[in-house]
Request: fold
Amino acid sequence: MQLTFLGTGTSCGVPTIGCSCYTCTSTDPHDKRLRCSALVETEQTRLLIDCGPDFRQQILSQPFRRIDGILITHAHYDHVGGTDDIRPYCQFGEINIYADPIARQGMLQMLPYCFAEHRYPGVPAIQLHEIHPHNLFQIGDIHIMPFEVMHHDLPILGYRLTHGQHTLAYITDMKTISEKEIPYVERVDTLIVNALRQKPHHSHQTLDEAVIFAHRIAACQTWLIHSSHDIGRHAEVNAALPQSVQMAFDGLVVEI
Reply:
């Protein structure tokens, strides 16, 4: 199982428009962060996690072939704003999108023309599936277990993906997680989790909170995502982190 980080930035991306801070003026390509999204692939199956407003730019660098499913964490614009851009992939067949009831309703409101009874020509052919935490399902040869985390007071989905003996957990926009959800994420081979910045935030984990969480669940390797310009420059942050917990970057490919 292979994961490609299409984007690792927060809702404003890095550099942030109009900002001339230390991070935004970096010339290191690792400090250029598009909005969060990832591709998970095996020899048989290709999944997209979230489809934000940078999707078109992100996917142009990838081979053009079928996407078997799109897993939605939540329906905030920076995670679903690029959904209309999946229309070229409809030539391979209907696109299956999976979301919890709250995110499903949000997508229906944001993209009503995609789900109308009588759709005009050219509208993406989307099948929107409602999923729920702890209800295991399968796409191709990947088993998918949704679980719940809290984005401040909004419940959103994380995903535990299993292929053979290999496990991956993907979490974004988390502030807290309840004890009953921990068994669904602990001891994964690879954890992808959000780390917004150094200072506290009401709805996102800080860098320190992300590191503590990674150690708590005993993940073998952790990659940090959804990072703003306030977190600092990639190389300097990574130098201060343990080797088992590192910042991801756009275009990074990891084998699970």
User: Anything to note?
Assistant: The two ends are 5 Å apart (CA to CA). The mean pLDDT is 97. The first strand starts at residue 2 and ends at 7. Residues 152 and 202 are 6 Å apart (CA to CA).
